[in-house]
Specification:
This protein has helices at about 35-40, 45-70, 90-105, 115-120, 165-175, 180-190, 215-225, 230-260, 275-290, 300, 305-320; strands spanning about 5-10, 15-20, 25-35, 80-85, 110-115, 135-140, 145-150, 155-160, 265-270, 290-295. The protein is an alpha/beta fold. It folds into two domains: about 5-120 and about 300-320, ATPase, nucleotide binding domain (Nucleotidyltransferase, domain 5, 2-Layer Sandwich); about 130-295, Nucleotidyltransferase, domain 5 (2-Layer Sandwich). The strands form two sheets. Strands 3-2-1-4-5 form a five-stranded mixed beta sheet, sandwiched between helices. The chain is globular, with a radius of gyration of 20 Å. The protein binds 5'-O-[(R)-(carboxyoxy)(hydroxy)phosphoryl]adenosine and zinc ion.
Length: about 325
């Protein structure tokens, strides 16, 4: 019997995400608490503070989500929690709450791979892509191109050799004095920038493979910030150049992956997928090349509980849940 109503719990980093997914009625409700404001004064996520805040937020958010969906705790058929990768203390909060609830309700629990959540999140949208497709996974920790042939059938085609695209956004933003998380702020500042004043390197653009490298870009931004008086316009111009460089590489490699595999559908997942320049350039390329690009809704691009409930629900259709309620998180997980 496939569990119908699945509660999803995401707590791998600095967002507490909770959602209810029903196998037939789809996403019923979801709620999110983001800790960004709390971490911003430290310029990055403080793991200990993150764990403590998940402890504070998770149960009230679960209650809120149940109320939104007009459900009771006892209606739950299964629980999916993020097993990794992520911050160990933060993961432990979601895992222990998920397993404790599972134990109390005597229902199965399943640990979900956070990146599988991101990867499958575009399937929550309508219209959704069909297998097989290429996924560009661009988050704060990962930049990967993947061929997706089905649930659990993923082939890594290429990935970053150093910094992730989100990291490149965040580190460039920090060099320009923007607050954490810098990606969206850098994008806003870039909108005021003058195109073409600065030209930054496009790392590995012509490497002939699907690998990425972004650490050189950060160094190039650092050099620019040292060479110039950082008035408002100059900061915006540098932001413009940084965003243009990151986006051009992402678009070019994603198109290359489609060309190599002959596939026609591209799915964008992860926080950087919220970037408007990336979206507009991919959409322009899609029209030119007769391909289709799919994005998760903006709220499901960054970390959220819906993607975990959803990935858990899909996994529960084809695999046995874990046995017992001993949880083992995987802070590092390929
Ligand atoms: O997927 P995500 O929420 O968390 C991870 O699992 O890493 O991605 C967060 C990353 C951060 O680096 C953030 O700066 C970036 O996504 N990001 C953006 C935008 N929104 C979020 N980067 C560029 N433009 C955006 N609009
Ligand atoms: Zn994520």
């Amino acid at each position: 019997l496939i569990p119908q109503l699945v509660l999803g719990i995401e707590s791998s980093c600095d967002e507490t995400g909770i959602a209810l997914y029903h196998q037939e009625r789809r996403l019923l409700a979801h709620a999110l608490f983001t800790q960004a404001a709390m971490h911003s004064e430290y310029g990055g996520v403080v793991p200990e503070l993150a764990s403590r805040d998940h402890v504070r937020r998770a149960l009230p958010l679960i209650r809120q989500t149940l109320e939104q969906a007009d459900c009771q705790l006892t209606d739950l058929d299964a629980i999916a929690y993020t097993r990794g990768p992520g911050l160990s203390g933060a993961l432990l909060v979601g895992a222990s709450i998920g397993c404790a609830l599972g134990y109390a309700l005597d229902i199965p629990v399943i640990g979900v791979h956070h990146l599988e959540g991101h990867l499958l999140s575009p399937l929550l949208a309508d219209p959704a892509p069909e297998f097989p497709f290429i996924a560009l996974l661009v988050s704060g920790g990962h930049t990967q191109l993947m061929r997706v042939d089905g649930i659990g059938q993923y082939t890594l085609l290429g990935e970053t050799l150093d910094d992730a695209a989100g990291e490149a956004f965040d580190k460039s933003a920090k060099l320009l004095g923007l607050s954490y998380p810098g990606g969206p702020e850098l994008a806003n500042l870039a909108a005021l920038g003058m195109p073409g004043r600065f030209k930054l390197p496009r790392p590995m653009l012509h490497s002939g493979d699907l690998e990425f490298s972004f650490s050189g870009l950060k160094t190039a931004v650092l050099t620019l910030t040292k060479q110039h008086e950082l008035d408002e316009q100059t900061r915006a111009d540098i932001a413009h150049a940084a965003q243009a460089a990151i986006v051009e590489v992402l678009v070019s490699k994603a198109l290359f992956a489609l060309k190599q595999t002959g596939l026609k559908q591209l799915v964008i997942a992860g926080g950087v997928g919220a970037n408007q320049l990336l979206r507009s350039q991919l959409n322009a390329a899609a029209t030119r090349k007769g391909i289709q690009v799919f994005y998760p809704a903006l709220e499901f691009c960054t970390d959220n509980g819906a993607m975990i409930a959803f990935a858990g629900a899909l996994r529960l259709r084809q695999q046995e849940p874990q046995v017992g309620y001993a949880f083992d998180i995987k802070p590092r997980w390929d």
